Amino acid sequence: MTQTTPSLPSNSNASSLSKVRVFVRRRSKRPKTTSLALQQHDLQPPTRDDHYKRSSFPEIEDFAYSGANAITQSSKSEMGLDVTLVESEAASTRPTGELPAHWERVLEGIRRMRCSAEAPVDTMGCEKAGDTLPPKERRFAVLVSSLLSSQTKDHVTHGAIQRLLENGLLTPDAINNADEETIKKMLYPVGFYTRKATNLKKIANICLTKYDGDIPSTIEQLLLLPGIGPKMAHLVMNVGWNNVQGICVDTHVHRICNRLGWVSRPGTKQKTRTPEETREALQRWLPKEEWVPINPLLVGFGQTICTPLRPRCGECGISDLCPSAFKEASNSSPSSKPKKSGPNKKR
Asked: Do you know which SMART domains this protein is assigned to (predicted)?
C-alpha cells in the first residue's frame, strides 16, 4: 500500500522522527505528474546488486533547476525516476531547526539568477565525470573526480579526468598497474597533484582488494579512503549510489550560507568555521528535498555572482534579503582602502 507523506508548512518546526530516513531515487514507469508529493513505500533498502543493474545515473543539476522552479516533477519523470523514502540511520527527512527568514524567497531568487547564466559546475562539475561510462566505471570516475576537485577549479579537474580517460587510466585496475609518475603527469596542474596521485594509487588498490573493483557504498567506508572528506563522500553517495545521506558542502556553499545568515555555530549566532559545521547546521532546517540541488545551485552562484572576493552584490537579485550585501564588496574594493601619504609626498 502506498501512503502520501504530507508536506510541511515552510514556517513550522517539526520534531525529529523516531525513525530516520533518506531519499533514494528508484526507477519507475509511472506517468508524468506535476505533484511534488513524495511517495512512501514499504520497500527494503537497495542492495549493491540493485545498483549494478542501473544503466544510468541522475545528474545533480537535473535536480537543481529546470526553469524558475527548483525540483520539477517533470524533470524527474523524464529520467524515469521516482523519489521514495527508505529506512536508514541518516538524518531525519523533516527539518528540526529554526527556519531562516525569507529562505524560500532567497532560494527562488538564486534559482532565477542561475537560469540566466551558465557556471563552470554545470558542465565540468564532479558529477559529470565519466557520464558516458557504465555504472560501475562511472562510480569510480566520480570518486576520482571528487578526490581531484579539492582546492582545484572545475575546468582543471575536468581536464585531468579527460586525460585519464583518454589514456585508459580511469579504472582501479589501470591506475593500480600504472607508474605513479605517469599518474602525476596526467593530473598536473591539479592542486597538490603529487599527493593526490599517491592517494589515487592507494584508493585503486583498496577498491580492487576490498570491493571487487567497485567503490565503497557507505559514507563510513568512503571516509576511510585516503584524501576523501565528508563533502566528497556525500557527493559520491548522491551521484554514484543514488543515496542521499547528507548535503555536499564545499567552500562555495560554506561561504554563501554564512553570508546569507543561514547557518551558525550551535547555541550561538557566530558563523560556522568549517564546511562540515555548515553541513550539520544546514541539515538541521533545510527540507530534505533540497539537499541534493543546493550544492550545484550555490556552487554556480558562487562562481558567477557571490564570488569569494568582491561579490557582485549590485548584480544580485536577492541583495535586499542578504544581511551581508555590499559589505564585503565595499570592504574588498581598492577604492575603499585609505590612502597613505608618503614622507616626501606634497600635501
From this structure: ENDO3c (SM00478), FES (SM00525)
Distances (CA, A) of 116 to 62, 127, 264, 290: 16, 21, 30, 20
- Whole-number Å distance between alpha carbons of 44 and 134: 25
Q: Which DSSP string corresponds to 3-40?
A: EEPPPPPTT--PPPPSS-EEEEEEE--PPP----PPEE
For the chain, percent of residues with pLDDT exceeding 90: 64
Asked if residue 189 has a cis previous peptide bond (ω within 30° of 0), the answer is: yes
Mean pLDDT, the chain, whole residue set: 77
Helix count and strand count (H, E) for the chain: 15, 5
As to burial, measured by CB atoms within 10 angstroms (0-12 exposed, 13-18 middle, 19+ buried), residue 342 is: exposed
**Active-site residues: which are they?**
231
Tell me the three state secondary structure of residue 249: coil
Phi, psi of 4 (to 5 degrees): -90, 125
CA distance 174 to 179: 10
Distance linking the first and last C-alpha atoms of the chain: 85
List phi, psi (to 5°) of 253.
-60, -40
pLDDT tens digits along 240-250: 999 999 999 99
Q: Starting at the earlier edge strand, list the strands of the sheet with 21-27.
A: 3-4, 39-40, 81-87, 21-27, 243-244
Query: How is 126-141 classified by DSSP, letter by letter?
Result: GGGTTTTS-HHHHHHH
The residues that bridge with 87 in the sheet, in sequence order, are 21
User: Residues for the chain: how many in total?
Assistant: 347
The pLDDT assigned to 320 comes to 97
Q: List pLDDT tens digits, range 146-158.
A: 999 999 999 999 9
